[in-house]
Write a structure and sequence with these properties.
The chain is mainly β. The chain folds into two domains: 55 residues, no CATH class; 111 residues, Immunoglobulin-like (Sandwich). 14% of the residues lie in helices and 52% in strands. The strands form five sheets. Strands 8, 9, 11, 14 and 15 form a five-stranded antiparallel β-sheet that branches. It has a five-stranded mixed β-sheet with strand order 10-17-16-12-13, with no helix packed on it. The chain has a three-stranded antiparallel β-sheet with strand order 1-4-5. A hairpin with a 4-residue loop joins β6 and β7.
Length: 182
C-alpha cells in the first residue's frame, strides 16, 4: 500500500515538473529595447510572437474593465525648435532663448490638456509650458512662449510633448532630440 502512494506521488511530481519545463520553453522572458532604451519590464516571446506592454510605447494607454478593452492613442506630433525665425536641431553648450512649435494631427480622442517639457542628459525634466484645451479637435498647433534654457553640458536633450485626458495624468506622445555640443 505504501509503495502505491510513493508511486502516485512520483507520477504527480513528474507530471508537474514536465508541465513547468514545457511552459518555460513556450513562454520566454526577453529584453526589449525601444529607440536604444531598455524597457524596464521587458517582454515575452510566446510561440514565436513578441509581446510588449503597450504602456511602454509613447502614447496614451487606457484600459476599460467593463469592456475588457485596451485603447491606445498616439497622435502624429511634429516638433519644431525655433531661435527667432530660424529652425535648429543642434546647439552649443550654454544658454539659448528659443520656443517650441508643435503640430498635432490624427488625434482620435478628446484630451483636456497638453504639456511640453525638456529632459537633460542626466534625466532631469523641466516643464516648459502646459495649457488646458477649451475644445476638442483632431488637429491643432501648440506654440510655447520664448524661454531661456541652459544646455549646461554636452549630450542629448529631449523635448517631450504630453497629452492628458480629463482627470488623468500626462502621457508622452512625442519626443525630439537636441544635441548639445562643446
Amino acid at each position: 500500500m505504501r509503495w502505491k502512494r510513493i508511486a502516485a506521488c512520483t507520477l504527480a511530481l513528474s507530471l508537474l515538473s514536465g508541465s513547468a519545463v514545457f511552459a518555460e520553453s513556450a513562454i520566454q522572458k526577453i529584453k526589449v529595447m525601444i529607440n536604444g532604451t531598455t524597457v524596464s519590464g521587458g517582454g515575452y516571446l510566446i510561440d514565436g510572437t513578441t509581446y510588449v506592454p503597450v504602456r511602454e510605447f509613447d502614447g496614451l494607454a487606457e484600459y476599460s474593465d467593463s469592456s475588457k478593452t485596451v485603447s491606445f492613442t498616439k497622435p502624429n506630433v511634429d516638433i519644431f525648435l525655433f531661435k527667432g525665425d530660424t529652425v535648429f536641431g543642434n546647439v552649443n553648450v550654454g544658454k539659448l532663448k528659443f520656443y517650441i512649435f508643435s503640430q498635432v494631427d490624427s488625434l482620435n480622442t478628446s484630451i483636456s490638456s497638453v504639456k511640453v517639457s525638456i529632459r537633460n542628459p542626466s534625466g532631469d525634466v523641466k516643464d516648459i509650458q502646459s495649457q488646458d484645451l477649451s475644445s476638442s479637435k483632431d488637429n491643432f498647433w501648440f506654440k510655447t512662449y520664448d524661454f531661456t534654457y541652459d544646455f549646461s553640458k554636452a549630450g542629448k536633450y529631449y523635448v517631450e510633448f504630453y497629452i492628458k485626458k480629463d482627470n488623468g495624468s500626462y502621457s508622452m506622445v512625442a519626443q525630439k532630440a537636441i544635441n548639445a555640443v562643446e
